Amino acid sequence: MSTVAASACKENKDTLKLLVTAGPHAQKAICIWLFASAAWVFSMVILGGVTRLTRSGLSMTDWNFTGSLPPLSDEDWLIEFEKYKQSPEFKRVNRGMNIDDFKFIYWMEYLHRMWGRALGIMFALPFSYFIRRGYINLRLGVRLAGLFALGGGQGLIGWWMVKSGLEEPPSKYFQPRVSPYRLAAHLTSAFAIYCGLFWTALTVVMPEPPTESIAWVKGAAKVKRFALPVGIIVGITAVSGAFVAGNDAVTLGISTLLSYVPVSLGAAHQAGALTLLTFMLLLNHTLRRPSTMLLKSLPAVAKTI
């Protein structure tokens, strides 16, 4: 940012719509918290992909909003295994599964669920602390409360998705699987939470875009005409993978590929999609339009030395 623009921002800092108003220390703490939360959601998406690729998502046949302890004894494991034996997946796909194989898929799904609940605690505790200390303004508070509510709803969406896979398929020729529409809703919600957290973290650390002149702003606007549609396409493409993974009407070649894709490559593919989306978020955030106050302080053309 040019010297003139920086001076104008410093002189009018009380009128800027800053999300954090308690100084640099609070700004740094909230940035670390939000970026860590976004990274946690990133890991949740990857873990969810691994859970699906290992066909572990239907191993837990019940759901508790507050969570529950895993089986702690052989008797507890046998009880859980008997519950799973009543599911369509066991009857049609995993009839030869033993207790050790069941433990693996159970732990995968349990880890996925508990990782999500841990994220809720990790988000809620600092949020309440920052609210009490007055580190954030109403605008940021409402935005973060909305993201927290969306995160809580994600657990309900996840069970709604899993429940579809516990129902009897319409025909004996179909394998039990979750509804692709519910899977897409679950994945879309996760992407929305991630994008909201990452975008908010960027806004906290960079309230104004890097701008040196009016000409700079006009140039950024031209680039954004292409960056925004590309970012939307990237997001839609990533979410559409849920339909490919969950729909029975894929061609034979694609279904065969999906059946034998290595877990590591499948997880890397999903991580790559989310990484690309991250770069598009960063680009569009950098190209966003400055505030009216900053625009009034900018020279027509940046000064050159």
Automatic annotation (TrEMBL):
Looking at the UniProt entry, the stretches that span the membrane are 30-50, 114-132, 144-162, 182-205, 226-245, 257-283
What broad class describes the main subcellular location of this protein? membrane
Sorted keywords for this record are: Heme biosynthesis, Iron, Membrane, Metal-binding, Oxidoreductase, Transmembrane, Transmembrane helix
Per the record, membrane topology reads:
Multi-pass membrane protein
Required co-factors: heme b
- Describe the reaction catalysed, as an equation: Fe(II)-heme o + 2 A + H2O = Fe(II)-heme a + 2 AH2
Listed Pfam families: COX15-CtaA
What are the protein's GO molecular function terms?
Answer: heme A synthase activity; metal ion binding; oxidoreductase activity, acting on NAD(P)H, heme protein as acceptor
Tell me the route in metabolism or biology where this protein functions. Porphyrin-containing compound metabolism; heme A biosynthesis; heme A from heme O: step 1/1
Q: GO CC: one term?
A: mitochondrial inner membrane
One GO term under biological process is: heme A biosynthetic process
Q: Where in the cell is it found?
A: Membrane
The cross-references to InterPro entries, in alphabetical order and at most eight, read:
COX15/CtaA_fam, HemeA_Synthase_type2
PANTHER family listed in its UniProt record: CYTOCHROME C OXIDASE ASSEMBLY PROTEIN COX15, CYTOCHROME C OXIDASE ASSEMBLY PROTEIN COX15 HOMOLOG
Query: What protein is this chain from?
Result: Cytochrome c oxidase assembly protein COX15
Organism of provenance: Deinandra increscens subsp. villosa
